[in-house]
């Protein structure tokens, strides 16, 4: 089995990365955090179509994996901020490249005709 097929193994790190980022909201949340620290309500307003439950669940997963930090401020009412870690920030270039590729190649794609 070559190095390229390592990605296809269920226990490979590459596979774990692909699995994490194939989740619908993960890359969008990271993208929404590129400008800087945001509150949960700001993220929910920014990312159209995401439910609060899914946003919280995905943020927890990204925090567990080390891509996002969660800071709770001891104020009334409580305030929670989310920001990218250096690991999360390191995804800026590949995510922006994917977006640019999509605009260049899929933005001009013709929809398939219905049968």
CATH superfamily: Winged helix-like DNA-binding domain superfamily/Winged helix DNA-binding domain
Mean pLDDT: 87
Order of helices and strands: HHEHHEEHH
The rounded Rg comes to: 17 Å
Tally of separate domains? 1
Strand order across the largest sheet? 1-3-2
Silhouette: globular
What CATH calls the topology is Arc Repressor Mutant, subunit A
CATH architecture: Orthogonal Bundle
* N/C terminus separation: 41 Å
| Class per helix and strand makeup | alpha+beta
Give the helix level as a range of percent: 40-55%
The fraction of residues in strands falls at: 5-15%
- DSSP helical segment count: 6
CATH class: Mainly Alpha
Weakly predicted, low-confidence segments: none
The overall strand count is 3
Major pleated sheet: 3 strands, antiparallel
